[in-house]
Model the fold of this input.
Amino acid sequence: MTVRPDGHPAIADPRIGVLLVNLGTPDAPTPQAVRRYLKQFLSDRRVVEIPALIWQPILRGIILNTRPKKSAHAYAQVWTDEGSPLGAITRRQAQALQARADGIVSVAHAMRYGQPAIGPAIDALAAAGCRRILVAPLYPQYCSATTATVVDAVHAHLATLRWQPALRVLPPYHDDASYIDALKTSVEGGLATLDFVPDVLVASFHGMPERTLHLGDPYHCQCRKTARLLSDALGRPVEVAFQSRFGRAKWLEPATDVTLARLGGEGKSVAIFAPGFAADCLETLEELAIRGQEQFVAAGGTRFAYLPCLNDSAPGMAMLEALVRRELGGWL
Done:
């Protein structure tokens, strides 16, 4: 315990903070809540790189008046008693990591869009005495529209602070041995629960416009490397696909929906999983597990399985703890 002179203002003893950050979620599966969420998300210049003078009228005049109702229906299909799956799982990940942490480490979580927000989470860690904070964007593969925008938001908030904490950022871990091992354990565990042996394993990553690849974003290459290393670890091929296409631009290919329709038409059995997502969310539980299966069956397929993300499973948390402890080297 630090001894301070009489009358000295109360200052929390120094601690280390870890802030887990994921993409975000609406507060409720309602059109109003989804509209608020989409307005913030789709106004991020790293997410939509169309000039604001062109994009904002489209966003406010068309998308925010048509998409929230459809998206709210999709959220309602996967909403839980704890709230959105992404919010609930990220909260459990933070709690599980806190239980694994040393006594001088405080773990919090935040969302880039929606609640809990990054700024208040940093303020809470600082108020608890965290003068050193590791920000951990939960994106295994680096993308400017995910990892970079988290860092942008963190630094934007730090710019408002007089007493700034020291900062580290967890780097992408797409090829880290602990990540590949955790994926291998998770996939093999999921396959062991099935009553069939799938002909094809599909790794579905979130899509990005193809132009981002040509502009130098490493995301596509890192997704491919993850799949290649996992394929080697599993000892069997893994097909790569990219989901969640939006708008008229050309996106990374092959597309997940096209891939599932092709495999269904070929009579192949399929197990699909999403290694780029640290936690199950709308894009996995609704887009893949529900709509993906519908697309597969409509094309003639019969045997289909969705395998969960790492979430707060034992392999996933062991991996996250290993990554965090390594990045806290010299601080602990």
Notes: Residues 15-173+316-327 form a domain with the Rossmann fold fold (CATH 3.40.50.1400). The chain has a mean pLDDT of 96. Residues 141 and 259 are 22 Å apart (CA to CA).
